[in-house]
Amino acid sequence: MSKKDNTIRVSSESKLQLPLANLVGIIIIVSGAVMGWANLTGRIQSLETARHIMETDLISKSDQMITDQEQYLLLEMLSKSQETTDSEMHSMRNNTVELNRAMKDIEQMKKQIEILKDKVRANGNGSHN
Question: Which residue segment(s) compose the domain that 98 sits in?
Fold first, then answer.
């Protein structure tokens, strides 16, 4: 065979014969590949968008504004003030117990003083006004 016999010539008047089953198979494979590529790129794009939104939200939430810092300082001040108030209340609770004990002692002393007054009057030395 010569070289001229092995060459393929394609022109506008060339004819191609292909069985219908092969043509349908090629169309299905090409359309499946195109659909798969479109789904894959769509999924990648949605994941990248979700990651970008998450990073943007994370960065915006981590940035403290001046009002946030002021509120943090106020919270710290109020916390220290509350601790001081708690310790004062604890010491006052002890004072209340001591005052109650002192009141009981005073009541006992009043009773003893009344008894002593009654004894002094009974002896006749209670002529004081």
Answer: 93-123
Could you give the number of structural domains in the chain? 2
For 3, residues 6+ apart whose C-beta sits below 8 A from its C-beta are: none
For the chain, the first-to-last Cα distance in angstroms comes to 160
How would you class 11 by CB atoms within 10 Å of its CB: exposed for 0-12, middle for 13-18, buried for 19 or more? exposed
Q: What is the reported pTM?
A: 0.37
CA–chain centroid gap for 24, Å, is: 58
**Which pLDDT tens digit goes with each residue over 19-37?**
889 989 999 999 999 999 9
Q: Do both 74 and 108 map to the same domain? A: no
Do 33 and 76 fall within a single domain?
yes
DSSP summary character for residue 124: T
